[in-house]
Amino acid sequence: MKQIGIYPGTFDPVTYGHIDIITRALKIVNKLIVAVSDDSDKDYFFNAFERKKIIENSLFKDLKLDKKKISIIPFNILTMSLCKKYNANILFRGLRAVSDFEYEFQLAGMNRNLNKKVETIFLMSDVENQVISSKFVKEIAKHNGNINKFVTKSTIVSLKNKMK
How would CATH label the architecture of 4-163? Predict the structure, then answer.
């Protein structure tokens, strides 16, 4: 049976923490959909199209991951509706710290009530990636700090270009 998973997030921008979750999820599913949130209520640094392009460049250009196993899409519907649309039966969520767990636990419970056919799998990123957040990366980049350990080369270029 083909296992299809969805990894939703804002990815504003994608970091090595996100990429760590993506590569771990690929060990579990045959196809992974990286779903870029386009919620109009949020104030993003990069728009959904830019974030999608940054992820594509990071995964396929910088890291040379398999394009046949990963799709990157923008979305602005309920995550469970997205799972139904793509016949996904696994939802991946990344956890960095204990503080993430309470929110993610509640979200998983709500999603389970909406669609019992979809399992939520929590993945912890490697220890060196647990402190990385898109917010911190943008703050460091804004002050001309070194972000090489946190994002791919193409993401650094995108951040620098956007901050000009």
Answer: 3-Layer(aba) Sandwich (3.40)
The upper half-sphere exposure of residue 164, i.e. CA atoms within 13 Å in the direction of its Cβ, equals 6
Residues 2-52 have pLDDT tens digits of 899 999 999 999 999 999 999 999 999 999 999 999 987 788 999 999 999
Q: Is 134 a catalytic residue?
A: yes
All structural domains of the chain with their residue ranges: 4-163
pTM of this prediction? Answer: 0.94
Active site residue 68: no
143 a catalytic residue: no
CB-based contact 26:124 (threshold 8 Å): no
Catalytic: which of 2, 42, 116, 164? 42
> CA nearest 101: which of 120, 127, 78?
120
- 28 vs 78: CA distance, rounded Å: 23
What is the amino acid identity at position 120?
A: T
d(CA 68, CA 32): 9
